[in-house]
């Protein structure tokens, strides 16, 4: 499906300002936005992985409507060669690490691998080496991430978190730590066992869905959140509700843990809605490629869509994929906003002669 859709002919929107200048302007704006988002999250202790902490601040509403992390992901795929890319990448990495997200390294590895293969700087040998290095450092990333997540509830300082991480690796439990990291990595890249659990619970899930105990797939995302706020329905997505039904180790309360259900999970939850589900998800898929091509004709823009399909649509994290499309629309609008040539506008205004 991706190969078919990605071959459609869509011309990128041409503007009066060269892409190099446009990338600088958007890069400066995104840097300010990312720093503001980092400070907001650090002070408020929100948007941390594994945490359900929330705030009613007006800034929170702004950052929901303006998904900063997604905007940088799009910037990565469209303006990778821009002079402000590296500083934005640094802020993005720091911001995500402080919030306990380690998945960003998957995106970086993928983008740079595609870039290296096209330029013929990366061979099969280097690819294998990179995978081995990733497997070697993932346990460390896993434990850093776990320590940051647990610190949210315990109120530990940054120094105390660092001491815990170091003591874990220098203790005699090092191999246990490595094993935990490897098991976590395997669990991240497979969805078969979760899908099996969906199939096992299909009767329960169908009954719960018909009772309205979790949202239909077409209401997952920002539009569903807005409707929920308007009508005060207090609706829950299947990704948040599913751990209550599943036979997973540990007892999870609502909001403590989210999980995907696999793309075909909805085939078993709502079999009669399979045609609508396919039409809806294919429409989202088409829209993502169409918008990416309107934004940029760079090959890395299609790379960006591919990784978004794999991580967000195939799982499926429909709410996140909808956010991705929402961010594409915002980014497309930003191109028009920053395409205004201020010097040209100033000159034009000065040359206007009064009538008569």
Please tally the β strands and state the result. 0
As a percent range, the share of strand residues is: under 5%
SSE pattern, N- to C-terminal: HHHHHHHHHHHHHHHHHH
Low-confidence stretches: 346-350
Shape: globular
Q: What radius of gyration results from the CA coordinates?
A: 23 Å
What does this structure look like?
By secondary structure, the protein is mainly α. The chain contains 18 helices and no strands. α15 runs antiparallel to α16. The N and C termini lie far apart (62 Å).
Descriptive keywords:
globular; mainly alpha
Outline of this structure?
With 356 residues, the protein is mostly helical. 69% of the residues lie in helices and 0% in strands.
Which SSEs are present, and which pair or pack?
Elements: H1 2-6, H2 19-44, H3 58-65, H4 68-78, H5 85-98, H6 104-118, H7 124-154, H8 158-170, H9 174-189, H10 192-200, H11 202-210, H12 222-231, H13 238-245, H14 265-269, H15 274-295, H16 299-313, H17 318-337, H18 342-350
Helix pairs in contact: 2-4, 2-5, 4-5, 4-16, 4-17, 6-16, 7-8, 7-9, 15-16, 15-17, 16-17
């Amino acid at each position: 499906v991706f190969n078919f859709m990605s071959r459609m002919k869509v011309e990128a929107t041409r503007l009066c300002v060269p892409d190099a200048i446009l990338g600088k302007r958007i890069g400066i704006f995104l840097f300010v936005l990312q720093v503001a988002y980092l400070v907001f999250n650090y002070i408020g202790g929100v948007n941390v992985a594994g945490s359900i902490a929330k705030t009613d601040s007006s800034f929170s509403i702004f950052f929901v409507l303006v998904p900063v992390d997604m905007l940088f992901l799009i910037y990565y795929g469209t303006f990778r060669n821009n002079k402000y890319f590296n500083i934005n990448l640094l802020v993005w990495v720091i911001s995500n690490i402080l919030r306990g997200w380690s998945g960003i390294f998957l995106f970086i590895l993928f983008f740079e691998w595609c870039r290296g293969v096209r330029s013929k700087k990366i061979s099969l040998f280097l690819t294998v080496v990179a995978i081995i290095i990733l497997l070697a450092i993932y346990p460390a990333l896993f434990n850093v991430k776990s320590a940051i997540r647990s610190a949210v509830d315990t109120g530990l300082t940054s120094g105390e978190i660092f001491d815990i991480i170091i003591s874990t690796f220098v203790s005699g439990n090092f191999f246990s730590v490595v094993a935990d990291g490897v098991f976590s990595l395997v669990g991240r890249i497979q969805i078969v066992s979760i899908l099996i659990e969906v199939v096992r619970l299909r009767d329960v899930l169908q009954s719960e869905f018909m009772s309205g105990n979790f949202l239909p797939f077409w209401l997952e995302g920002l539009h569903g959140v807005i409707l929920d706020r308007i009508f005060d329905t207090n609706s829950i997505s299947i990704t948040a509700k599913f751990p209550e039904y599943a036979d997973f180790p540990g007892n999870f309360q609502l909001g403590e843990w989210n999980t995907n259900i696999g793309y075909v999970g909805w085939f078993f939850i709502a079999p009669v809605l399979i045609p609508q589900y396919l039409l809806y998800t294919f429409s989202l898929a088409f829209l993502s490629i169409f918008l990416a091509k309107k934004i940029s004709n760079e090959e890395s823009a299609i790379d960006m869509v591919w990784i978004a399909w794999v991580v967000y649509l195939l799982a499926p994290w429909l709410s996140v994929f909808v956010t991705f499309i929402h961010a594409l629309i915002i980014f497309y609008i930003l191109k028009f906003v920053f395409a205004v040539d201020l010097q040209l506008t100033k000159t034009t205004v000065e040359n206007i002669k009064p009538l008569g």
